[in-house]
Amino acid sequence: MYDMIIIGGGAAGLTAGIYGGRSGLKTLIIEKMFAGGQAATTYEVDNYPGFDETVTGPDLAMKMEAQAKKFGAEIITEDVIDINVDSKIKIVKTSRNTYLSKTLILALGANPRELGLDKERKFRGAGVSYCATCDGAFYRDRVAAVVGGGDTAVEDALFLSRFSPKVYLIHRRDQLRAAKVLRDVAFANDKIEFVWDSVVEAIEGEENVEGIKIKNVKTGVSKELKVDGMFVAVGVVPNSDLIKGKIETTDRGYIVTDANMLTNKPGVYAAGDVRDKILRQVITAAADGAIAAFAAERYITETDFNM
Ligand SMILES: Cc1cc2nc3c(=O)[nH]c(=O)nc-3n(C[C@H](O)[C@H](O)[C@H](O)COP(=O)(O)OP(=O)(O)OC[C@H]3O[C@@H](n4cnc5c(N)ncnc54)[C@H](O)[C@@H]3O)c2cc1C
């Protein structure tokens, strides 16, 4: 029996692990892929306090993982496929084992939103990508398109311009949502061509991406762009399928918590990008994880588990 099981080993889960382990709680982090979550796929994190020299996402993730282990949190690689949150002792089923715990922290994170186009899934890894920092280096001397208008889209276009001779930034509006500092750098970059008021209608190609068909939403005119790759940066969707019908969420699937990260079930907390909140970043994921672990520890102290 564990005191605290944390599902998800991103910034939120690892920070909860640091606080849980350091409090002397028997703590288990279950991560289905690799520790660090989205942060580990980010090239540079330059807004996390404490690093005046920019830290790479993988380095930051590795440091968080090492810190959680240092304080005694156990980290395993398994996919959680079911949970029971209705009894006092929570049950967590993975594809391999069943675990029991007094408390549960849901740090399930989020995944990039898809455009929903034919061939989008088929060409994932064959010209369609959701992570410029992971795949950008494959686009040396090849033309790329980025879809989106927020910080991630602009960062992706800037990153790709290190490799690609030309990067189209396709946005459905006529101005970017991205922060001014990013906009200014992007507008000054002559490798980036902005395609305003446009959406992607189709992906062209047989075995991999050879082009995309875009439509101007104001004029209704469609045209084809010859590109070797399309990077999609149009937001994220929460990884909340696991808890559907078991834990209260918003209409969009984000878990509802109080200020102490408590969900609508006693002993069950949520932290990070999967939670309904205003800002989804490494710093806020880490903060949520710390609060959730602290609140869980207090709950364990105040609850009689012998009944
Ligand atoms: C390209 C990109 C660039 C970014 N740049 C920045 C930046 O510069 N600065 C910044 O502060 N933030 C940045 N962010 C946002 C930041 O990475 C996230 O806000 C933060 O990592 C969220 O952490 P998290 O722990 O909540 O979720 P995640 O990082 O999504 O981690 C959740 C983890 O849970 C695991 N998981 C999910 N379901 C299960 C299951 N059933 N069983 C087991 N494990 C499961 C997932 O595999 C994942 O590892 C960026 C994000 C992206 C995608």
Could you characterize the architecture of this molecule?
The protein has six helices and 19 strands. It is α/β, with parallel strands linked by helices. It folds into two domains: 2-112 and 236-302, FAD/NAD(P)-binding domain; 128-232, FAD/NAD(P)-binding domain (3-Layer(bba) Sandwich). The longest helix has 21 residues, at 282-302. The two termini are 15 Å apart. Flavin-adenine dinucleotide is lined by residues 7-13, 30-33, 37-39, 41-42, 45, 47-48, 79-80, 107-110, 131, 133, 152, 239, 242, 272-273, 280-283, 285.
Question: Helix and strand layout, with pairings?
Answer:
Blueprint: E1 2-7, H1 11-22, E2 27-31, E3 44-45, E4 55-56, H2 57-70, E5 74-77, E6 80-84, E7 90-94, E8 98-106, E9 110-112, E10 128-129, H3 132-135, E11 144-147, H4 151-160, E12 167-170, H5 180-187, E13 192-195, E14 198-204, E15 211-216, E16 222-225, E17 229-232, E18 236-238, E19 268-270, H6 282-302
Helix pairs in contact: 1-2, 1-6, 4-5
